[in-house]
Design brief:
The chain is of the alpha+beta class and about 475 residues long. Among the domains are: about 180 residues, no CATH class; about 160 residues, no CATH class. The chain has 19 helices and 11 strands. The radius of gyration is 23 Å and the shape is globular. The two termini are about 40 Å apart.
């Protein structure tokens, strides 16, 4: 794989040039004393960037937006969004910049984007900065999600800026450099529709088709096909979240991508004890974005996308609405199919098992897990041992032994494949107490716990000696876990 020397690092400006209505040219705030904290060298290589150069002073300056290649046009993107159900017509990148587009080693266009790079015209009174801990959280969780095979934006680097960020207490500041297939969101289309700009709406849709869903271009109704492609991508994505116990935390429409990638890891976490009502965001007081609500919220967000795209579906409003409703009806079918197939795989029953026997097992399992407060990740990994004949590790997780014994007996009668289970049920996820431990140490200047955590989650399915604590649930005294958006 060829690695670009520093002098040839190229960033395109397609979004900036094609959508001046949505792109405000802007510069990152000064970083007084930038210091690289962590770099994903494998991702850098995928992008054709020299990791050694990125670790040097010029590379670090690129990663905080202080030095941008000739021809690039850093911009703050405009978009709208429903935040906790309330529509805000003008949101945008209040503390982020799109530096430009790269072409990776596979010929794919990828956005290079900064988070925490300072105030923009969309900052709405905020300082536009970010602290070290939230940016490292995104680095850890996005690394884990990528390793789990879940579509996601990816973190390239976190750089400490040498600037103090004022929150409840003074905190060390940082900038996250991340990479995405694209930063178009449902909120991007909402912005165009709210502005009443039919030309912008159509150009955005054409851009989304060309960049993310090219199969829609040849359809009889390409814009309806685009909508259906986004439905399919989001149904598959959210099913994957649910299968690994991931809670996004803030599923606003400005946090739902057109590409189908997970984006904006703020108040996010992985389930400990299984609980559909689990909420980890400090601001989600009503539980709108609880773990169990995520599929319904995704469907709700897609309905908002449909409303934005109605003028492109048909000239007749009633016909456009009918087409949108019909297409949106496919979300639940697609989600259910993806989730059910994923559950059968997690139970080692992929293929064509007896649905009349398997379906009750799947339907009964959530109640069993909830009643005994069973750790989500530990249960599915231990279950492979039960398939091999040792059910005791699973039994120890439950209070009602008769109920789980009955369930395990019926499940084992179907001949589950334990090796296949180990390939889809992770040993290691970013357990919340370990994430907090690593972040606290990093803020104090000790990056070793962070490095050990990243080593574990970067290879989540391969159980390795010496990593037992990374597979273990949180200690009882860890308490209720709360995360914050970092703004």
């Amino acid at each position: 794989m060829s690695i670009a020397p520093p002098s040839t690092v190229a960033l395109g400006n397609r979004f900036a040039s094609e959508f001046p209505e949505l792109a405000v040219p802007w510069q990152a705030a000064e970083a007084p004393d930038p210091r690289l904290l962590v770099l994903d060298e494998s991702l850098a290589a995928e992008l054709g960037l020299d990791p050694g150069w990125l670790r040097g002073p010029d590379g670090v300056r690129l990663l905080v937006g202080a030095a941008v290649p000739d021809g690039a046009t850093p911009v703050a993107q405009a978009y709208a969004g429903h935040q906790f159900g309330g529509f805000v017509p003008r949101l945008g990148d209040g503390r982020a910049l799109l530096l430009g587009e790269l072409v990776d080693a596979g010929g794919n266009v990828r956005d290079l984007h900064l988070k925490g790079s300072g105030r923009t015209p969309f900052a709405r009174g905020g300082d536009g900065l970010a602290a070290v801990a939230p940016m490292l959280r995104e680095f850890v969780v996005s690394r884990a999600m990528h390793a789990l095979g879940i579509p996601t934006t990816r973190s390239l680097a976190v750089v400490a800026t040498g600037r103090t960020v004022r929150r409840e207490t003074p905190l060390p500041g940082a900038v996250l450099a991340r990479v995405a297939a694209g930063h178009l969101r449902v909120g991007s289309f909402q912005y165009a529709r709210a502005a009443g700009d039919a030309d912008l709406l159509r150009r955005l849709a054409d851009h989304a088709i060309d960049r993310h869903h090219r199969g829609a271009a040849g359809a009889e109704r390409p814009y309806l096909a685009l909508f259906e492609a986004v439905i399919a991508a989001q149904a598959a994505l959210v099913a994957r979240w649910m299968l690994v116990g991931f809670v996004h935390g803030v599923m606003n429409t400005d946090n739902m991508t057109i590409s189908g990638e997970t984006i904006d890891y703020g108040p996010c976490a992985f389930l400990e004890a299984f609980d559909p009502a689990a909420v980890y965001s400090s601001i989600d007081h009503a539980g709108r974005y609880a773990y169990g609500n995520q599929p319904a919220i995704a469907e709700w967000n897609l309905a908002r996308l449909a409303e934005s795209l109605l003028p492109l579906f048909h000239d007749d409003q009633e016909r456009a609405v009918a087409l949108a409703v019909e297409s949106l009806g496919g979300f639940r079918t697609r989600y259910d199919a993806a989730w059910s197939a994923g559950m059968r795989a997690k139970l080692g029953l992929a293929g064509d098992p007896d649905r009349a026997v398997v379906s009750p097992l799947i339907e009964e399992l959530p109640a069993l897990l909830l009643a005994s407060h069973v750790d989500h990740t530990a249960f599915f990994r231990a279950l492979a041992g039960a398939a091999r004949g040792d059910a005791e590790p699973v039994r120890r997780l439950f209070i009602d032994l008769a109920a789980i014994d009955d369930w395990v007996a019926r499940w084992r009668a179907l001949g589950p494949n334990p090796d296949a289970m180990d390939r889809v049920n992770p040993v290691y996820v970013p357990r919340n107490h370990l994430v907090e431990e690593a972040l606290a140490a990093a803020v104090e200047g000790d990056l070793d716990p962070l490095g050990r955590l990243l080593t574990a989650v970067a290879d989540p399915y391969d159980e390795r000696p010496g990593l037992d604590r990374y597979a273990a649930p949180a200690p009882e005294d860890f308490g209720r876990y709360v995360t914050y958006c970092g703004t």
